[in-house]
C-alpha cells in the first residue's frame, strides 16, 4: 500500500510532541498551530483528536502523573508510602518543569491525579488519620513537591563572591551554591520531607 500523504496522528504522538514543545518553549510556547506544524499536519486535523488546548494540556499532565509511584502504600506503611510518592512526584515534575505551573492548580478532575490521591487518602484513613487530617497531609505533600519543583533556592544566588563578602558575614560561601544547586536542592527537599513525615 502507498504511504499516507500526511503522517498518522495518535494520542501518544500528539502528547509526546506537545510535551516536547512545552519542554523547549514553555507553556505559552505551545499552540495548536505550532503543534500541527511539528506533526506535519494542518491545525484542523488536530481537532479531530483534541478538542481544545486545555484538553490537550490535561492529557499531557495525565501522562506525566501516570509515572507517580503510590505502590508504597500497599505495604500498610503510610510513612514509606508518603516518602516514595513524594520522591517520584518531584522527579516527574523535575523532568518537565515548564508544565509545573499548569499542574499546580490541583487535580482539576484529572483521573491519573485523582486515582493517586485516592490511594494516598485511603491509606492514611486506614492508618487511623481522620478524613480531614488525611486531606491536610496530602496537601502538605503537594506543597513540598510543588514548592521544590517551582523554584531552585540554591541557583538563585550569585556566583560572584564580591556580592556577599563584607556585607553578609554568614553568607561568605553563598557564591558556591549555584555550582551545587541540583544536589543541594535535592537534599533540601529530602530534609523537608523527612522532617514533615517525622512531625506527623
From TrEMBL:
Transmembrane segments: none annotated. InterPro entries: DNA-bd_HTH_TetR-type_CS, Homeodomain-like_sf, HTH-type_TetR-like_transc_reg, HTH_TetR, Repressor_TetR_C, Tet_transcr_reg_TetR, Tet_transcr_reg_TetR-rel_C_sf. Keywords: DNA-binding, Repressor, Transcription, Transcription regulation. Signal peptide: none annotated. GO terms for biological process: negative regulation of DNA-templated transcription; response to antibiotic. GO terms for molecular function: DNA-binding transcription factor activity; transcription cis-regulatory region binding. It holds the Pfam family TetR_N. Residues 8-68 form the HTH tetR-type domain. Residues 31-50 bind DNA. PANTHER family: HTH-TYPE TRANSCRIPTIONAL REGULATOR RUTR, TRANSCRIPTIONAL REGULATORY PROTEIN. This is TetR family transcriptional regulator. It comes from Lentzea guizhouensis.
Amino acid at each position: 500500500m502507498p504511504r499516507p500523504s500526511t503522517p498518522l496522528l495518535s494520542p501518544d504522538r500528539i502528547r509526546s510532541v506537545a510535551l516536547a514543545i512545552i519542554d523547549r518553549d514553555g507553556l505559552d510556547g505551545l499552540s495548536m498551530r505550532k503543534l500541527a506544524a511539528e506533526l506535519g499536519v494542518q491545525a484542523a486535523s488536530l481537532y479531530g483528536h483534541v478538542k481544545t488546548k486545555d484538553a490537550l494540556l490535561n492529557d499531557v499532565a495525565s501522562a506525566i502523573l501516570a509515572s507517580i509511584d503510590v505502590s508504597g502504600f500497599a505495604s500498610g506503611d503510610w510513612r514509606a508510602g508518603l516518602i516514595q510518592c513524594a520522591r517520584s512526584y518531584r522527579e516527574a515534575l523535575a523532568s518537565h518543569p515548564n508544565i509545573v505551573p499548569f499542574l499546580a492548580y490541583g487535580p482539576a478532575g484529572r483521573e491519573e491525579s485523582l486515582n493517586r490521591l485516592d490511594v494516598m487518602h485511603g491509606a492514611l484513613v486506614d492508618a487511623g488519620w481522620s478524613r480531614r487530617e488525611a486531606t491536610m497531609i496530602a496537601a502538605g505533600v503537594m506543597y513540598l513537591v510543588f514548592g521544590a519543583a517551582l523554584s531552585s533556592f540554591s541557583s538563585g544566588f550569585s556566583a560572584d563572591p564580591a556580592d556577599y563578602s563584607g556585607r553578609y558575614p554568614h553568607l561568605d560561601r553563598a557564591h558556591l551554591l549555584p555550582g551545587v544547586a541540583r544536589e543541594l536542592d535535592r537534599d533540601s527537599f529530602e530534609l523537608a520531607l523527612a522532617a514533615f513525615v517525622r512531625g506527623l
